[in-house]
Design a protein that fits this description.
The complex is a heterodimer of chains A (about 325) and B (about 280). With about 325 residues, chain A is mainly alpha-helical. Chain A has one domain (about 95-325): MetI-like fold. Chain A has helices spanning about 5, 30-65, 85-95, 95-130, 135-145, 150-160, 165-175, 185-215, 215-225, 230-240, 240-255, 260-265, 280-290, 295-320; strands at about 65-70, 80-85. A two-stranded antiparallel sheet of chain A has the order 1-2. In chain A, helix 6 (about 150-160) crosses helix 8. Mean pLDDT of chain A is about 80; it is low at about 1-25 and about 320-325. With about 280 residues, chain B is mostly helical. Chain B contains 14 helices and no strands. Chain B has helices at about 5-35, 40-45, 55-100, 105-120, 120-135, 140-150, 155-165, 170-175, 180-195, 195-210, 215-220, 230-240, 245-265, 270. In chain B, helix 3 (about 55-100) packs across helix 6 and helix 4 packs across helix 7. Chain B is globular. Classes of the chains: A mainly alpha (about 325), B mainly alpha (about 280). Chains A and B meet through helix 2, helix 4, helix 5, helix 6 and helix 8 of A and helix 1, helix 3, helix 4, helix 5 and helix 7 of B.
Chain lengths: ~325, ~280
C-alpha cells in the first residue's frame, strides 16, 4: 500500500539522494537541517534512556563478572570486587531450581500467550465491527483490569481462589464440582488466569489502535466488493494489524519471563510455589535472602538475554519489525 | 452504512457480555468487599453484601489509619504517575516523530537500540539501577522513581508507528515551503496530528507507573516516599497480627483503582479519534 502516492499525486517527485535502495522517493532536500532537527528531538529521550537503561545494564554485566572478596584476618579487613570471569554464570546454569523455573515460565508462555492474544484479537475485532453496540462501555470494561496493579490483582484473585472464602469455589461446590485452584498441578494456570485477566484489555487496545490506523476507504471498498464482516476481518483487518500482533506477542514474552508479583503474592496460599518458582523470584531471593548480588546479577543478565533472544527470534519469525508499510 | 444482520449483532453482543462478566467479576467482588469488615470478609458469601454494609466508615478508616499515611501514598502515586507519564509522553513524541519523519544516518541503529530497550525486562534493570542511583545519591528520593518513569521505549515505538501513518510528508513539505522551522512544524503540526497516539502513550505510561511495584520496592526505604502499591503491601505484611488490616487493604485497593477508572472513562472520547483523521484528505 503506497498511501503517499495516492494522497498527493500532484507533488513533484522528490530528489532521492543517499537513501537506501529499498526506500526510494523519500524527500531529503535539506539533509543537514533534518539531521540537526532529528538530533534535537531525540536527545532528551536518549539521555534519560542511557541513564536508566544502558548504564544499569552495563553495571549488571560488570557485577555478574565479579565476586566479593574479603581481605584481612577472618575477612574483616574489608571487601573488594574480584574478576571471576563466567563463574557466576556457570553457577546459575548449574542450579536445577533456576533451570526448572525457566522451563516453567516457558511452558506458561507457550500456553498463556496464544490464548490471551487470541482473546484480545477477537475482542478487538468484535469492538471494531459494525455489529457492536455499547462499544465505549465494553472497551472500558475490558481495559479496566489493566488499571488494577499486579499485586492487587493477585490479592483479589487469591481471595477468589482460597476455599472457604472464595465465592467461586462455593458456587462450584454447590454445582457438585470440586475445584482446587491452588493445587500443585493447577496453580500455574491460576496464575495464567490472573495475567490473562490483567493484560488482555491492554493488548486489545494496542490492536484497536492499529485497526483505527487502517484507512476507512479500504473497508468501504471491501464492502462494495461484497465482502461480509467475517471476510473483512479475516482477509483485510488481520493482515493489516500484523505489526501490532507481533508487538503484543513480544511484550507478552518479556512479561512472562519477568513473572514475579503474582507467584510472590500467592506463595503463602500455595505450597507448590517455592522461592525458585520463576527465574525472577529466584534472582530476587538470591539478592535479598541469599545476599549474593553477583549471582543475582548474572541471573538478571541471563533473563535479559533470554528475553532478547526469544523476542528477536519471534520478530524474525514474524518477518521484520513491520513498522514500514510504505 | 447498512445495518449488519441481526444474527451478527446478537452473536457479537453475547460474546462481548460474557467477556465483560469475566473482566468485571473481581472488580465487583472488590466493590462488595469494600463494604465489609474483616470478619464479614471471611464469613459471608463474597458476591453479595453482608447484613451491615459500612462502606463510608471503612473507607474513612482507611484514609485516617496511621495518621493518614494512605493519603500520603496516594499523593505520591499521583506525583510519580502524573509527572512521569507527562514527561515520558513528550519525550516519546519527539523521539518517535524524529525517527518516523527524518531520514538521517544511523536512524535504524537508534531505533533498534530503543527497541532492544523495550525488550529488556524491567526487573533486570531495577537492581543495578538502584546501585547506580545510590552512588549518585539519588536512591530513596522522588527522583529515583521519577527519572526511570520518564523513559518509555514503548512510547517511542508507538509514536513512530503512528507518526509514520498519520503525519503526511506532503503537509510537512508544505509547511517548510511556507517557511516554518522544524521545531515549529513538530510542535504545531506533529504533536497535533499525533494527539490520539499521545493520549495512548500517556495512559499506558500512567498505568505502568501507577502499578509499578518492583522499582519503588528496590529504590525507596522511607515510607513517606512510598506509592500506594508499596504502602498496601506493607499493610498486608502486618495483617496476620492486626486482622483489621485485611479490610484496610481491600478498601485501599478499591480507592487506588477508582482514579484509574475515572481516567479511562474521561479519556474514552480520545479513543474515538481515528488515526486517519489527518488534515491532508480535505
Amino acid at each position: 500500500m503506497t498511501r503517499d502516492t495516492l494522497d498527493h499525486p500532484g507533488l513533484p517527485p522528490a530528489p532521492a539522494h543517499h537513501t537506501t535502495p529499498t526506500r526510494p522517493h523519500r524527500p531529503t532536500r535539506r539533509p543537514t537541517r533534518h539531521t540537526r532537527a532529528a538530533v534535537a528531538l531525540l536527545l532528551p529521550f536518549l539521555t534519560l534512556f542511557a541513564l536508566c537503561f544502558l548504564a544499569p545494564l552495563g553495571y549488571a554485566v560488570h557485577e555478574s563478572l565479579h565476586r566479593t572478596a574479603r581481605t584481612g584476618p577472618l575477612g574483616l579487613g574489608g571487601e573488594h570486587d574480584v574478576f571471576t570471569g563466567l563463574t557466576n554464570y556457570t553457577h546459575a546454569l548449574a542450579d536445577d531450581r533456576f533451570l526448572t523455573g525457566f522451563g516453567r515460565v516457558l511452558l506458561f508462555g507457550a500456553v498463556q500467550i496464544p490464548l490471551m492474544i487470541a482473546l484480545a484479537t477477537t475482542l478487538a475485532l468484535l469492538l471494531e465491527s459494525a455489529s457492536a453496540r455499547g462499544v465505549p462501555f465494553f472497551r472500558t470494561a475490558f481495559f479496566l483490569p489493566y488499571g488494577v496493579p499486579g499485586v492487587i490483582a493477585s490479592i483479589l484473585w487469591g481471595f477468589l481462589y482460597v476455599p472457604g472464602i472464595s465465592p467461586l469455589v462455593t458456587l462450584a461446590q454447590t454445582l457438585g464440582w470440586n475445584v482446587d485452584f491452588l493445587a500443585r498441578g493447577t496453580v500455574l494456570w491460576s496464575i495464567a488466569n490472573i495475567v490473562t485477566w490483567q493484560f488482555t484489555g491492554y493488548n486489545m487496545l494496542v490492536l484497536i489502535a492499529q485497526l483505527k490506523a487502517v484507512p476507512s476507504e479500504l473497508y468501504e471498498a471491501a464492502r462494495i466488493d461484497g465482502a461480509n464482516a467475517w471476510h473483512t476481518a479475516r482477509h483485510i483487518k488481520l493482515p493489516l494489524i500484523r505489526p501490532a500482533l507481533t508487538l503484543t506477542c513480544v511484550f507478552s514474552i518479556i512479561g512472562t519471563l519477568q513473572l514475579f508479583a503474582e507467584p510472590m503474592v500467592l506463595r503463602p496460599l500455595a505450597s507448590a510455589i517455592d522461592s525458585g518458582y520463576t527465574p525472577n523470584l529466584h534472582a530476587y531471593s538470591e539478592a535479598f535472602v541469599g545476599n549474593n548480588q553477583h549471582l543475582a546479577a548474572a541471573e538478571a543478565v541471563l533473563l535479559a538475554l533470554a528475553a532478547c533472544v526469544l523476542s528477536f527470534g519471534f520478530l524474525r519469525l514474524a518477518g521484520g519489525h513491520g513498522t514500514d508499510r510504505r | 452504512m447498512t445495518r449488519p444482520p441481526a444474527r451478527y449483532r446478537i452473536i457479537t453482543a453475547t460474546l462481548l457480555t460474557i467477556a465483560a462478566l469475566y473482566f468485571l467479576t473481581p472488580v465487583y467482588w472488590l466493590v462488595i468487599s469494600t463494604t465489609k469488615n474483616t470478619a464479614d470478609l471471611f464469613g459471608t458469601f463474597g458476591f453479595w453484601f453482608s447484613r451491615h454494609p459500612h462502606p463510608i466508615d471503612h473507607l474513612t478508616a482507611v484514609l485516617t489509619y496511621d495518621h493518614g499515611s494512605y493519603l500520603r501514598w496516594f499523593a505520591n502515586s499521583l506525583l510519580y504517575a502524573g509527572i512521569g507519564a507527562t514527561t515520558a509522553t513528550l519525550l516519546s513524541a519527539a523521539a518517535g516523530y524524529a525517527l518516523a519523519k527524518y531520514a538521517f544516518p544511523g536512524r535504524e541503529t537508534v531505533f533498534n537500540i530503543v527497541l532492544a530497550g523495550v525488550l529488556i525486562p524491567g526487573t533486570a534493570l531495577a537492581l543495578p539501577l538502584y546501585f547506580l542511583f545510590s552512588e549518585m545519591g539519588l536512591s530513596n528520593t522522588y527522583w529515583a522513581v521519577l527519572l526511570p518513569s520518564a523513559v518509555s521505549p514503548f512510547g517511542v515505538y508507538l509514536c513512530r508507528i503512528y507518526a509514520a501513518a498519520a503525519v503526511p510528508d506532503s503537509l510537512l513539505e508544505a509547511a517548510r515551503i511556507d517557511g516554518a522551522g522544524e521545531a515549529r512544524i513538530f510542535a504545531g503540526l506533529g504533536l497535533r496530528l499525533m494527539t490520539p497516539a499521545l493520549v495512548t502513550v500517556f495512559l499506558f505510561q500512567f498505568v505502568h507507573i501507577w502499578n509499578n511495584y518492583f522499582l519503588p520496592l528496590v529504590m525507596l526505604s522511607d515510607s513517606g516516599l512510598y506509592p500506594i502499591q508499596l504502602g498496601l503491601t506493607s499493610w498486608t505484611g502486618y495483617a496476620d497480627r492486626r486482622p483489621e488490616l485485611y479490610q484496610y487493604t481491600v478498601g485501599g485497593a478499591f480507592l487506588s483503582v477508582v482514579p484509574l477508572m475515572i481516567l479511562m472513562t474521561v479519556l474514552q472520547k480520545y479513543w474515538r479519534t481515528g488515526l486517519t483523521d489527518g488534515s491532508v484528505k480535505a
